[in-house]
Amino acid sequence: MGLSVIAPPAGDSASPAHRRARRAFLVSNYMILGAASGCGFLTLSLRLVPSVDGFLLILLHAITVAAAVAGCAVIAAPDPPRGRVYTAHMSGTVVVSILQGAAAVLAFSRTSEFLADGLKSYVREEDGAVILRMVGGLGIAIFCLEWVALALAFVLRYYAYVDRECAGNPMRRSAKVGGEDGTGNWPWLFQA
């Protein structure tokens, strides 16, 4: 039932490339959603309740989940967002992606110091290091998937613009004028 959103709405005049980009965007957001919720549960398993750094790490994963859900909801809407809503969503996604990458690098490069000094976990240090490295690995995956989702969001924005401005006219969608390639009136030396 969750992947039924991927199907284009009835009467959708979007091009096949637009529909493929929409599907890829949804799949990448679903993967971000799964990885971020996994990171959140792994971080909760470290028992970081009294730690400020632990709270911020859990908050980062919650914001990542909210951004992925918002991305799925936006693409499923019949009218794509414009203006400030689109700008705010893209800016938030960039900030979340950068913070996820920074947390992942911190989890990999300074695992023992981050676990002992910053997080103040109640879990044994060896187990905590393994869990923190898993969170770091998922953080790197989220970082990469967020940038894929951003690139696909820009592609979808372009396709929405083309579909809106060209109003379904296939001649206006291509770069060819009048359906010719323009090589018919060139000298014989340049014609292939």
UniProtKB/TrEMBL annotation:
Domain of life: Eukaryota
Gene name of the record: LOC100844835
Protein name (database record): Uncharacterized protein
Listed transmembrane segments: 27-49, 55-76, 88-110, 130-156
Keyword annotations: Membrane, Transmembrane, Transmembrane helix
